[in-house]
Amino acid sequence: MQHLNNMDPVEIGGLIEAGFDNATVKVFSDDNAHFEVLVVAAEFAGKRPLARHQLVYQCLGALVGDEIHALSIKALTPDEWQVKANG
Question: What predicted TM-score, i.e. pTM, was given to this entire model?
């Protein structure tokens, strides 16, 4: 039986933060294999959801599909986040 080293949400958050300038990153997981990620970054402005997700995946590289089995991403600009937070 193969044993995978599961990732810690803090590690994943750090990897994502390193890929953006001044992003807000929150990572949630119940089992350290399936993750929900909220990324608020100015880099998302003018980008479609798929392009936003690709930017997040680039930060994680080969970990997605290996240590990270499932990743749910919410990628918002700071303005979109303000609307959601105050909505």
Answer: 0.88
When divided into structural domains, the chain yields a total of 1
Range of the domain at 37: 9-86
CATH of the domain at 78: 3.30.300.90
SS3 content of the chain, % helix, strand, coil (to 5): 45, 25, 30
Kindly report the backbone phi and psi dihedral angles of residue 45, in degrees, each rounded to the nearest multiple of 5, phi listed first: -60, 130
User: 22: buried, middle or exposed (CB in 10 Å: 19+, 13-18, 0-12)?
Assistant: exposed
More confident residue, 8 or 40: 40
Contact 22, 5 (CB under 8 A): no
Domain-located, residue 14 = yes
